[in-house]
Design goal:
alpha/beta, Rossmann fold, globular
Length: about 300
């Protein structure tokens, strides 16, 4: 490893397993001291809130092999010669997020990097979603990211260095069955782009990325499809190559974004795939328009021109 993050201190939320765990391990290998995090000790094989699936023995074994928490990730970092400290708590709580940042300061003296990876999700039709599921999806992803950003930024401003990296999802495009999760991620993309402009003068960069890798959520989704009659073999065959690999192959990019070398990179949304693909998402723009030069539109005109010219 290059030691590109020597002397830096990072918080990685949701780093007990999956993509967050791989990010924490990678940043530590590059020299950063890590505050690992998840909500509570232990982990569940159920990736979706208020959902319990009938896993086969093989599926259970695969999920348990991916399990872990803030302590097990910290233990692995320490075993590999790095420094880490586990912090258990839900980042959707403003006070918990404040305490996490204070822990980094008390333990290591500074906070340089925040990776907002934590999230909760539920998959299903919007009509079946209740208020609790909506709130969990929004607060864990969007509110949690704001909370950590808000409490870490004063320290970053004072030291004139900060790297905030937000884990989004292509669900921000509006994917079937992901209404709340998609809304949270769309909000996170907007938060990233707006806040990046607010703090750029202080040496703080803010970027977001959409990961694609084999995770606990993917295995839960595969089980859901199997229970709906889709053969596992067919699902695997049709899956993108990135969904067949865990996240190790894509996390070095996160280490790069967190480094001194990425000082001019801010306000972007990147696509990261475990098979090595790195992309840059475009900003939304108006792609077609119609205009009326004389007076106001009437409904009869719109009935004709909207389908034929705008859509």
């Amino acid at each position: 490893m290059s030691g590109i993050l020597n002397g830096k201190v990072a918080i990685v939320t949701g780093s007990g397993q999956g993509v967050g765990r791989e990010i924490a391990l990678c940043l530590a290998k590059e020299g950063a001291k890590i505050i690992t995090n998840n909500r509570k000790p232990g982990s569940s094989i159920n990736a979706f809130e208020k959902t319990s699936l009938a896993f086969t023995a093989e599926e259970q074994a695969a999920l348990k092999a991916m399990s872990g928490d803030a302590q097990t990730t910290a233990d692995e970092i320490i075993k590999n010669g790095g420094e880490a400290f586990p912090f258990f708590g839900d980042v959707s709580s403003y006070k918990v997020a404040e305490d996490m940042v204070k822990t980094a300061i008390e333990k290591y003296g500074r906070i340089d990097i925040v990776v907002n990876n934590a999230s909760s999700n539920w998959v299903g039709n919007i009509m079946d979603m209740d208020e609790e599921l909506w709130n969990i999806s929004i607060t864990s992803k969007l509110t949690g990211a704001f909370n950590l950003m808000h409490h870490a930024m004063p320290y970053m401003k004072e030291q004139k260095y900060g790297r905030i990296i937000n884990s989004a999802s292509d669900a921000f495009l509006g994917l079937l069955g992901y209404a709340a999760y998609g809304a949270a991620n769309a909000g996170l993309v907007a938060l990233t782009k707006a806040a990046a402009q607010d703090v750029e003068e202080y040496g703080i960069t803010i970027n977001a990325y959409t990961p694609l890798a084999r995770t606990r959520a993917w295995l839960n989704a595969a089980t859901t499809y199997r229970l709906q009659g889709v053969p596992t073999e067919a699902l695997e065959a049709g899956a993108p190559e990135a969904m067949k690999r865990t996240a190790e192959g894509m996390v070095p990019f996160i280490a790069y974004l967190a480094s001194d070398d990425a000082a001019k990179i801010t306000g972007n949304l990147f696509k990261l795939s475990s098979d090595g693909e790195i992309g840059l998402w475009s900003d939304s723009e108006v792609i077609r328009e119609i205009k009326k030069d004389d007076g106001f539109w009437n409904v009869e005109e719109l009935k004709t021109r909207i389908p034929e010219e705008l859509l």
